[in-house]
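Researcher: For the record, we're logging two predictions in this thread. I'll number them. Prediction 1 follows.
Model: Prediction 1, sequence and structure:
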Amino acid sequence: MRGVRIVFRREMAGLFLTPLGWVLFLLALVVNGLYFSTYVQVTGGDIGASLSLALGGGYPFWVIMVLFPPLLTMRMISEEARSGMLEFLLTAPIRDVSVIVGKALAATSFLALLMSTNLIYALICQGLGATLDWGHIATALFGTVLVSALFCSIGLVASTLTNTPLIAAFLGVFVNVVMLSMRYLEGVLKGFDPLVRESIMRKVDVLGHFQGSFVRGALDSADIVFFLGWSGVFLFLATRLLEARRWW
């Protein structure tokens, strides 16, 4: 755990001390603000429905989820490998899994802070007299953290595969899009038994697991296990790829 804390603090400091982190924060504030005001108009002033759209029910949320995690993680391994810093990190008395977990926690925490900017609009609306279901909002934010963890884990896998950050970002975005498109496999699987098809979809449908519970304000243990399980798979893969770099 000590190694995880060290890497986590190092990465968080790096994210807050570089222009990229603040640029992403500014973009999130602008995008979330513009679309939240649009959602309020579309829903006829329903603040609860507007927040649900902003926290997973609308397309802008998923655009941020697809693009931002790879941008946060693209330099975490690839840039350090290109600059030679990764060699010092790998020779330090820190396990490879601690390096990966620490970086994943830092990227996920930063993205969670970035997406929590939606709370600003919720607090403003409550101050103006709106009645909000904070339990629903907290559940949606929790789901956002789980999605962030999954996509940041994918970004770390991409970052371990190349020494070029832009290529790592492209790979991360590509895999994120594939993960979100899995629900459309149902049309391809029409020839399968309905029970088999449903079982496959439950194991790969990111949108279904998120929008079926968290967006609606419900906590389902199966959905939590889904995101934690897939995040664990990609973190394991990133760790193995990092270990393989010792022999490159």
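Researcher: Logged. Prediction 2.
Model: Prediction 2, sequence and structure:
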Amino acid sequence: MTILIAGLALFFGLHFLPMASGLRASFVDRLGAMPYRGLYSILSIIGLVLIVYGYGEARIGDNPVLYTPPHWTRHLTMLLMVPVFILLIAAYVQGRIKARFRHPMLLAVKIWAFAHLLVRGDLASVLLFGSFLAWAVIDRISLKRRTDGEPSVAIHLSEKRRFGDVGIILAGLAIFVWFVLQGHVLVIGVPLS
């Protein structure tokens, strides 16, 4: 559990930096923009690796069960996961979905984390998914208060971009289906059955 907690502390410690714009600015001033981004990226990857490894170790080690979710929550989780993949793709593609939700990746993280808390009641899972949920909520609130956080509402979309949302939805649904059929076991190592 120690490795998981260390990974979460490193990863989210770094991801809280942009919320404190003065602190982030002082690091950028000292290091320079590119070295800051490079160090931030490297340390984030290390934190993510520690999270993945630590979660795997914690699941097979001493991992007390805090609550036992009812069986029907598995179905609700599957339903909640459908928009997650669409929102993740929309975060990187201009269109109505991105304009409507402004920060689709944060919304995807919130839904993903909440959905997994519905079906995983062990301590390691509560730490992992609860941390991601808390960070996404705090970051979204922070973005509303920061001057650099909210994109312009007046996004003009061409007809081509409007139809691009259909592609985003279809791609998200395709990835969701792949993830249900084989991706979750390949990427996460846990079958969904």
